[in-house]
Specification:
Elements (H helix, E strand, L loop, with lengths): L2 E5 L2 H9 L15 H7 L9 E6 L5 E9 L5 E8 L9 H16 L3 E6 L4 H9 L3 E9 L5 E10 L5
Parallel strand pairs: 4-5
Antiparallel strand pairs: 1-2, 2-3, 3-4, 5-7, 6-7
């Protein structure tokens, strides 16, 4: 499957909000993180930070992408999600590569970073196949007082580096 990236729309945000992943991946449901859903529904973020990813052949929404460039554009943090029925099918590396290609064109970063739950070996393997390396495990504290443990992964933005 080939992927294409475009600005997120309200219809896309509605669709993503309705996605339900099977346990234990249900922690990725938009309803589990109100700030995630709120950010995705903010039209000012569409095409700036929030993007839709389509199946390039059918035009169907395949996933979403959130990109945050550092102030100097040296790194880009990637957040992404694949539609539940597309997960576990080996699409991860090509999906991740489409996200990185889009970010490379937009910002020309030197590094990509992302956070993943340390228990999500399925996602970690996909990230490793896309060239990411495991980094530190850390606890992130959110404004609502919630604390979540993440694994930070990184890779050079230049595919030849």
């Amino acid at each position: 499957m080939r992927f294409s990236v475009r600005a997120l729309t309200g219809q896309d945000a509605d669709a993503v909000a309705g996605w339900r992943y099977p346990a234990p991946y249900d922690v990725y449901d938009a309803s589990e993180d109100p700030s995630f859903e709120e950010g995705m529904r903010d039209p000012e973020r569409w095409g700036e930070l929030e993007f839709a990813v389509d199946d390039a052949e059918t035009g169907e929404l395949a996933g979403f992408l959130a990109l945050t460039a550092s102030a100097d554009h040296g790194s880009v943090e990637i957040g992404l999600g694949l539609r539940p029925d597309l997960t576990g099918r080996g699409l991860g590396p090509s999906y991740i590569e489409a996200a990185m290609a889009f970010a490379r064109e937009r910002w020309r970063p030197s590094m990509f970073v992302l956070d993943v739950f340390p228990w999500n070996e399925r996602a970690i393997r996909a990230y490793e196949r896309a060239g990411f390396e495991r980094g530190d495990i850390y606890v992130r504290r959110f404004p609502d007082g919630n604390e979540v443990t993440f694994l930070r992964m990184a890779r050079p933005a230049d595919p030849g580096a």
